Sequence to fold (507 residues):
Amino acid sequence: MVKDKEPSENPNLKNNNNNNNKMFIGIVWNCVPELKLLLSALLFFCSLITLFQFFPSHLSFSVQDLRHCASLPPPSSAVALPQQAPVQIQHVQVKQNDEVLQNGVIKRNFNTYGTAAYNFVLMSAYRGGLNTFAVIGLSSKPLHVFAKPTYVCEWMPNNGTGNLTVSGVKILPDWGYGRVYTVVVVNCTFPVSVGHDGSGGRLFIHASTSGGGDANFNLTDTIEALEEASGSLNPVLFTSPPKYDYLYCGSSLYGNLSPQRIREWIAYHVKMFGEKSHFVIHDAGGVHPEVMAVLRPWIEKGYVTVQDIREEERFDGYYHNQFLIVNDCLHRYRFMAKWMFFFDVDEFIFVPKKSTLKSVMDSLMEYTQFTIEQRTISNKLCYLDDHPGKIYRKWGIEKLVYRDMVKGIRRDRKYAVQPRNVFATGVHMSENTIGKTTHKTEGKIMYYHYHGTISERREPCRQFVNTTEMKVGGTPYMVDTTMREVAGAIKRFEQRMIGSALLTTRQ
Fold:
């Protein structure tokens, strides 16, 4: 059997195949960068999917989610988005569009959104007696400057005898210094005693804008200011002798404060104010760990309370809301102190050698409030009476001894009050008191002001001087060794009270 002859190849077909192969190779060669990018992307994506399989199960995504993301979009032009929880809209506002009236006038409309400032920011509320309360907070400053917001106080007793309402009296104690927010103290005084039977109850404040902000609306916010549990009221508190002779209400502390300056200040004033004294420190960011280390021994001794008020930084008020803080302190400790002092931690109270703090305060008992004169000390000039290396180891009150002697200018004063006769307070004095105020305390009591030394963590000495009088920049200075002379006694007092715990304190 003869094998059939294979058909001969067509030369034209062979040439066409060669041309097609060359064309494919050329296309592939020209697309090498794109192919590299595609292969790299696929390799990365596959690695990512493999890696996610080892992630904890509590994460909100899964491999299945990635597969959905990797899948091609549906034929329609819209891409399917991941499912999300529906947005909770509390108030749906219908937008008002402009319209043309019948007479051809175009009536423009205004659409409102959000709130520029809160109607009221509650900090605290305290009883001031059997029928009176104080509510302390912040409110929109423009609302109080350009409108007339009102407050209504309501007492809701737990025994169900019926609610009582009375108009609240607002006090704005920050002298117009507020920024976005101003301080408001609402006094609620009812015509009769409330909750005096010990049954407890709740105090509500109804804060109304009275058309301020939007004349079309009188918006009212109801705020539960105070809840008094049954049996918690102690009426004796309002008439019994106070626990402390002297209580210090500090303003907001902020910044990178010097631990050494705080150390000097607290030791000095605990010694001066005595055993029946207490110091309330308000931390607005300034009580960092090293400052807390200085305060800790005195906290453990019962002389100091630190309150964390950093949350107030959310609200733009004057100087870290210091008016708000001192008013809260006033009412929080109103019945716990005979006298309440307001000054700063770079200021040192002093009474002459021939008197004591008690004798001075007893001589001023007829006054609800008195102010204290300032003696300003240079925060740069240091007295060179020893080797500079030894001077650096001395306390600030030992080496900063040059007093500003400029006369005829007004210097800020600080003050003290008998708190039971005060309804609201300020930074330099109170304008809301019952009783007399005196400013004639020169020679009786004063304070030394070391301005700026507390806010920088460095050696305060910038220039060493060994003369008793000099001028710097036109300002006359004279040596005043009053505080220097008591420094040794303060150091010994600190050692006796808390030991050597703070000997290594740094600037």
The radius of gyration is 37 Å. The chain has a mean pLDDT of 86. The chain is about 25% helix and 25% strand. The first strand starts at residue 99 and ends at 100.
